[in-house]
Amino acid sequence: MFKGIVTKIARDMWESAGKPETGSAAQTPVQAQAAPPVSDREPEIQQIETDIQFPYYPGEGTACGASCRCRWHIDVRWSDEYQSNATYATWHTAGDASVCPDCQRRADEWHDVLVRLEPS
Question: DSSP string covering the chain, please?
Answer without folding.
Answer: -HHHHHHHHHHHHHHHTTPPP-TTTSPPPPPP-PPPPP-SSPPPPPP-------S--TTTTSSSGGG---EEEEEEEEETTTTEEEEEEEEE---STT--HHHHHHHHH-SSEEEEEPP-
